[in-house]
Amino acid sequence: MHYLDWAATAPPYRDILEAAVGVATERYGNPSSRHGAGRDARALLESARERLGAAIGAAPSSVVFTSGGSEADAIALLSTLVGKGERSVVISELEHPAVYEQARALESLGVRVVRVRPERDGVVSPGRVAEALRPDTAVVAVMAVSNETGAIQPIGRIVEAVRSAAGPRRPFVHCDAVQALGTIGFDARALGVDGAAFSAHKLGGPRGVGALYLSRPISPLVLGGGQEGGMRPGTHNTAGAWAFAEAAARAAASVEARMERARALERRLFDGLRAIPGATPLPEGRLPGDERYSPYIACLSFPGLAGETMTRLLDEAGVAISTGSACSSSKKERRSLDAMGVDRELSFSSIRVSSGRDTSEADIDAFLEAASSAYIRFRV
Amino acid sequence: MDALYLIKIGEIRLKEGNRTEFEQRLKHDLKRRLSSIHSEVRHRDGRYYLTVAEEHAGLAEFVLARTPGVNGWARAVMTSKDIDAVRAAVLEAAAAVVARGAATFKVEARRSDKSFPLSSYEIASGLGADILERFPSLRVDVRAPEATLYVEIREKAYVYTDGYPGVRGLPIGSGGRGLLLLSGGIDSPVAGYRMLCRGLSLESLYFHAYPYTSREAWEKVRDLAATLASFSGGMTLHTASFTDVQLRIKKDAPAEKTTLYLRACMMIAADMVAKARGLNAIVSGESLGQVASQTAENMRFTGSFTDHAILRPLVGTDKEDTIRTARAIGSYELSILPYEDCCVLFSPKHPILKADFAAEREAFEALGLREAVAESVATMETLEVPFSPELPRAGAAR
Q: Among B272, B268, B283, which Cα is nearest to B364's?
């Protein structure tokens, strides 16, 4: 199989997952316990925290282990509900459902939600985010890399714009960095965000582990045994945290080395696409090498052939891709493409091709060949 | 111990001419659904009695609740025609009534064996008094009791409490044989169910358009066929590939007429299948005015492609009522799964509402689609979906 769905999940590092079984079975103490086994597990957990911190540009004390990216986003957003007074939240129209649907839930509980549209190129303008702020804005959430188009959001400039536009009550700036860590890289301190969400399985770690970066403590909605500084209660997943840190460290160490290769594959993909009459990248006019986009994610449209149909035909040909966000692919609407003003026929016919550390030229070529022949045969 | 069920039949009783045939069919239907276990169906004086081993009570009740022709059924206890034995059974039934929280009751007795020494009235009042004595919390209410205990003195004595409703109607096959145009939507399974309950035995025909429609869409239809099979005792599902037909229509027909012509092609295919399989009627889930293709004008047009009776049991039914039935028969949750039967690229934005009959007949024939339809019927695949007490569940495979 030619696997080109890395943005949905990355094949795990086998050695890390195997070693994690040893960690789980041998260092099984509860890190909160006050005995030798507990202290041993605690030491392991703290070293994982340190390693992960180094990979995301954070002090260990700013790293909160969670059950995944969605929970990390939820902790940040749900803090809006704690405390008195009116609150509002500003998010981009591009956000992953982990943020977008959570914001909708907040809305139903009386929190005002302002949604900022991206520009036509799929990039959110810092100025527009600043304009959306209100005196009661508690949280601003903009993702680092769009999981549908690969558009890299100017997080550093958004943080600056929010800082200079905000009043005395400085909003908490949160960034879903799930698609950035391990691909284009993410440095929380350099970008100046207050919070950021990460997921282990997107970069070769196990499922069910993620992290929340917090520059300062927030008021969590969900309470319990006080673990993770009270930010995320629940017995620690020591082995999961360890494996996440290992995978993140390994991925982070090779970000730059892999970038060149990813750009070359991106060029190969886009050059091949140009040879298929009618096919187009989204946004239209995206070129390989454009710094505004992650080379690992491309949204491509084959007008006249539904993205769902193309996905099915490619699957038959042994090529795994997805229609937009894998989590919301059953919906006919393409929210973020709509927000970019993409024509409905183009967005309906779009697919997402995403690459990763093991992707080869042969994978790209197999995709191009299968997509081209499926398009010629079944386009209506 | 055996579980004994008393079965009430409804309309069969009214159809004097065919009565024997109907009764044979019902008996056969029950036996066939229970063929995996040992069961006994006895028929006496317009009543059916089903006996199965206690461990198969669940299956028996599943079958009784879903076999057309069964008006209602109740779990009964059979005793000898001895008043002490009857009393013991009645007191046990009353204990169950108390356990489920009923506060009022009555006893209804029927004596068809006139040699029994007590009259119906004496049986009822005597047993009522016995119950009151044993269960002081109960009160008698002859007008609107929360529970009714029935005692019937026939060749044996039978004791039972309030029963459960069946799906009623007529035994399968007593109304002939038909072909259901089955899709993954809400309506067609309900239409099929309605006709099954009128005694029509059914086969189903589904049109798929791979790769424009998915394997999941077909599996959903197969599961809907299995749901119907729980009422019909099995379902033959034919699947015809309409990909080429759809592509031809898309290429050659004006956009606003594609749906109308597609429906016509489906009717031609249904007509061919019905003739080949010896089926007398075509069943469709159409409801007047529900979508553009379901206007009287368009139904006339599509209906003109067959000389079989087209049965549209939902034609005057409100969607809310159809949904209620779909929920009751267990098809709704399957039907709303998000796997489409038709890619939107084939659906016109503004379909024609009122076909001009003569003009459209001519325009349709000019397209020469009959050959492609015949090819799809010739390559059709047929699956026998068996009766199973395990109903498909939405989400089980996802």
A: B268
Any chain A CB within 8 A of the CB of B327? no
One-character DSSP codes across A225-261: S-TGGGTS-S---HHHHHHHHHHHHHHHHTHHHHHHH
Closest residue on chain A to B246 (Cα): A380
Q: Could you tell me if B91 lies within 8 Å of chain A, comparing CB atoms?
A: no
CATH number assigned to the domain with residue range B177-386, chosen from the 4 options 1.10.3720.10, 3.60.40.10, 3.40.50.300, 3.40.50.620: 3.40.50.620
Residues of A with CB under 8 A from a CB of B: 304-306, 308-309, 312-313, 316, 330, 332, 348, 378, 380
Backbone angles phi, psi at B138, to 5 degrees: -85, 150
CATH of domain B2-165: 3.30.2130.30
* Mean pLDDT, residues B278-286 taken together: 97
Q: What are the boundaries of each domain within chain A?
A: 2-10+255-378, 14-253
Q: How far is B211 from chain A (nearest CA, A)?
A: 6
Give the other-Cβ count within 10 Å of B210's Cβ.
17
Q: How is domain A14-253 classified at the CATH fold level?
A: Aspartate Aminotransferase; domain 2 (3.40.640)
Contacts of A330 in chain B (CB under 8 A): 338
Q: Kindly report the nearest CA distance between residue A311 and chain B, in angstroms.
A: 10
Does residue B211 sit at the A interface (CB-CB below 8 Å)? yes
Whether pLDDT at B395 is above 70? no
**Band of pLDDT at residue B13, cut at 50, 70 and 90:** low
- C-alpha B48: how far from chain center: 20
Three-state secondary structure call for residue B237: strand
| Partner A contacted by B250 (CB < 8 A) | yes
Question: Do the bridges between strand A280-282 and strand A297-301 make them parallel or antiparallel, or are there none, so unpaired?
Answer: antiparallel
CA angle A140, A144, A148 (to 5 degrees): 110
Q: Which pLDDT tens digit goes with each residue over B170-200? A: 999 988 999 999 999 999 999 999 999 999 9
Q: Is B261 exposed, middle or buried (0-12, 13-18, 19+ CB in 10 A)?
A: buried
Asked if this assembly's ipTM is beyond 0.90, the reply is no
CA atoms within 13 A on the CB side of A226: 2
CA-based torsion, A130, A135, A136, A138: positive or negative: positive
List pLDDT tens digits, range A334-353.
789 999 999 988 998 999 99
Q: Output the CA angle B78-B80-B84, nearest 5 degrees.
A: 105
The band of B12, judged by pLDDT with boundaries at 50, 70 and 90, is low
Architecture of domain A2-10+255-378: Alpha-Beta Complex (3.90)
Could B212 and A316 be called an inter-chain contact, meaning their C-beta atoms sit closer than 8 Å?
no
* pLDDT above 70 coverage of chain B, percent: 97
With beta carbons under 8 A apart, name residues in chain B contacting A351: none
Q: Are A380 and B247 within 8 A, CB to CB? A: yes
Closest by Cα among A358, A292, A268, A261 to A118: A292
Segment A57-91, tens digit of pLDDT: 999 999 999 999 999 999 999 999 998 888 999 99
Domain chopping of chain B, boundaries:
2-165, 177-386
Write down the catalytic residue from A292, A327, A343, A378.
A327
Percent of chain B with pLDDT over 90: 78
Least confident stretch, A84-88, A328-332, B175-179, B214-218 = A328-332
B interface test, pick of A329, A334, A380 with most B CB neighbours within 10 Å: A380
Known catalytic residue at A327: yes
Q: Which of B247, B338, B343 sits opposite A306 (nearest CB)?
A: B343
pLDDT of residue B15: 63
